[in-house]
Amino acid sequence: MWTWLLKNRKLAVIAVLALLLAGAVKLWRAEVRDFAVFKAQVEVLGKQAEAEKKRVEAENKRIAKEMSDAWAKNLEVARDNAVRNYAARLRRDAGRSAVPKPAAGAQAPAGAGKEQVATCSADEQFIRDAAEDAARVEEAREFFRRHQFPTY
User: Fold this and answer.
1) Which candidate, 59, 62, 81, 57, places its Cα nearest to that of 132?
2) Separation in Å, CA 71 to CA 27, 79, 85, 130, 135
3) Do 87 and 122 contact (CB within 8 A), yes or no?
4) N or C, which terminus of the chain has less Cβ within 10 Å?
């Protein structure tokens, strides 16, 4: 056999090159086939991602509408309740003070107690604004609880 290869070197080289070419073509076709499968998989994943994106956007729009509707509905009630509660607490606590009374043996300086301190009336706009802020905070907390976001 070796003698035949030595005599017909050109044919042996052509046969080896033909085998190498056939192997290269086979590998190339396998790569083309694998790339087509990969391309199809990427296309399917892209369609799934697009569908998920649309679902998330629709969910976000629904949540935003739900929150804005709830906010508008509850805002005026929260403001009015805050003013009413503050006014009721002022009437209830009118005789009490957070300042402790002096001890029984303590004497007041001369002239103390003759002047009366003017009491402030409730600033309704301030109370309404505070109630609005509190309502916003409560709406945000409720949103975070409902969607299971971690809060700190």
Assistant:
1) 81
2) 64, 12, 20, 15, 8
3) yes
4) C
Chain segment 32-74, per-residue pLDDT in tens = 999 999 999 999 999 999 999 999 999 888 888 887 777 777 7
Q: What global pTM score does this model have?
A: 0.42
Q: 135 near 78, Cβ under 8 Å?
A: yes
- Those residues whose C-beta lies under 8 Å from the C-beta of residue 143, and which sit 6 or more positions away, are 63, 67, 149
AA identity, residue 102 = P
Specify whether the CB–CB gap between 138 and 67 falls below 8 A: no
DSSP for residue 94: S
Sort 120 into a burial class: Cβ within 10 Å, 0-12 / 13-18 / 19+.
exposed
